[in-house]
Design goal:
This protein is α+β, with helices and mostly antiparallel strands. It has helices at about 15-30, 40-45, 60-70, 100-105, 120-125, and strands at about 5-10, 30-40, 55-60, 80-85, 90-95.
Length: about 130
């Protein structure tokens, strides 16, 4: 983990395949995808170029709400997010906030970290 709390995993799949697999893994685990943001498509709409970049916003009110009740400032980082982006070499990366970073940043009680800690396993399964 870098000092900024960002974890990054390389995907062997294309960007769109990675997004599709990640959405499938999330829903199969009972998590809700709240939003999909296609940053590169939005940039193109205003005449700007950007490498393929998409953001998934996901979570579970059942798991996230107790965390936000205990540490209200974490609501700025919840629901959880995964950034799927293609670099200048065509490699696809999935980036997300480390649960430990979020715990330190917002003072989440140790017993509630498990509520947000599953993202790494979901990402790993999606990019395998």
């Amino acid at each position: 983990m870098e000092g900024n709390g960002l974890l990054q995993v390389v995907s062997r799949l294309t960007l769109d395949e990675t997004v599709k697999r990640l959405e499938l893994e999330l829903t199969q685990r009972g998590l809700q995808v709240f939003a999909r943001v296609d940053h590169s498509a939005e940039a193109a709409k205003v005449g700007l170029k950007m490498r393929p970049t998409k953001l998934l916003i996901f979570g579970s009110p059942k798991g996230g709400t107790p965390v936000m009740v205990a540490a209200p400032s974490v609501a700025i980082d919840l629901p959880l997010k995964a950034l799927i982006a293609e670099d200048e070499n065509g490699k696809v990366w999935v980036s997300y906030n480390s649960p430990e970073y979020l715990q330190q940043r917002h003072g989440i009680p140790q017993e509630l970290v498990k509520n947000i800690a599953g993202v790494g396993a979901v990402v790993a399964k999606a990019v395998e």
